[in-house]
UniProtKB/TrEMBL annotation:
Molecular-function GO term, any one: 5-carboxymethyl-2-hydroxymuconate delta-isomerase activity
Gene Ontology process terms (BP): carboxylic acid metabolic process
Entries under InterPro entries matching the protein: FAH, Fumarylacetoacetase-like_C, Fumarylacetoacetase_C_sf
Gene3D superfamilies, alphabetized: Fumarylacetoacetase-like, C-terminal domain
Span of domain Fumarylacetoacetase-like C-terminal: 72-276
Catalytic activity of the protein: (3E,5R)-5-carboxy-2-oxohept-3-enedioate + H(+) = (4Z)-2-oxohept-4-enedioate + CO2; (2E,4Z)-5-hydroxypenta-2,4-diene-1,2,5-tricarboxylate = (3E,5R)-5-carboxy-2-oxohept-3-enedioate
Name recorded for this polypeptide: Fumarylacetoacetate hydrolase family protein
Species, as recorded: Chromohalobacter moromii
Annotated function: Decarboxylates OPET (5-oxo-pent-3-ene-1,2,5-tricarboxylic acid) into HHDD (2-hydroxy-hept-2,4-diene-1,7-dioate) and isomerizes it to OHED (2-oxo-hept-3-ene-1,7-dioate).
Protein's pathway: Aromatic compound metabolism; 4-hydroxyphenylacetate degradation; pyruvate and succinate semialdehyde from 4-hydroxyphenylacetate: step 5/7; Aromatic compound metabolism; 4-hydroxyphenylacetate degradation; pyruvate and succinate semialdehyde from 4-hydroxyphenylacetate: step 4/7
Keywords: Hydrolase, Metal-binding
Assigned protein family: Belongs to the FAH family.
Amino acid sequence: MKLLRFGPSGQEKPGLLDDNGKIRDLSSLIKDVAGESLSDSALAQIAQADPQSLPEVPEGTRLGPCVGQVGKFICIGLNYSDHAAETGAEVPPEPVVFNKWTSAICGPNDDVEIPRDSQKTDWEVELGVVIGKGGRYIDEADAMNHVAGYCVINDVSEREFQLERSGSWDKGKGCDTFGPLGPWLVTRDEIADPQSLDMWLEVDGKRYQDGNSRTMVYQIPYLVAYLSRFMSLQPGDVISTGTPPGVGAGQKPQVFLKCGQTMRLGIEGLGEQCQRAKQA
């Protein structure tokens, strides 16, 4: 299934995309695409519904972030060997973990705000993993049973805030609108191999990122198990698993996002996003 959320910001309703590309309202079945609605049993119940019996949502309705009530927005840095190489960094001996604040989350096609005083706002197409079953000290062999599905994430980043302003990366990663999620949460049964997905990003029609999740260093089962050693994972938590090469900071000379530019990005089987950059 392709689950989604639609409607005005802060008032989103749950929905799904039917086989004809129409959005159907799931409000009669679940309150939100969030929390316990992401369990295997809850998803199986939703899958039994006939989409044609559900109300059709008008075309042009805003898509919100595909997951609601996100508790943790966990990110993995330098997790693609070819991206690490372009930044001049070595592949880390353990996953680099940082956070985006949940206030960074926005819809897949909402405007992205360039922060005040920013000179180095950058892009990163990433494969998002959404937790469906919580746990601690999860076995790597059992890790995929804790995954509800996948989505596209743009890990928008301000490189000066991240790397030149002292402290952790978080201050350059969690600005408002720096976490577009969606368009859909695609349930894990629809993606045969999440470690073999083409992914790309363009700015004003120029393709900068053109990679594949196969070059991910620490793969999804390992990441789920690893993170669960340091925190409990809960339904609706989002893990952003790293980016392939082609970020602005990796260009020679470096290139950063400017107001009025448009980012388009997508991942095979997971849909596309489109954001216009504007000044905060």
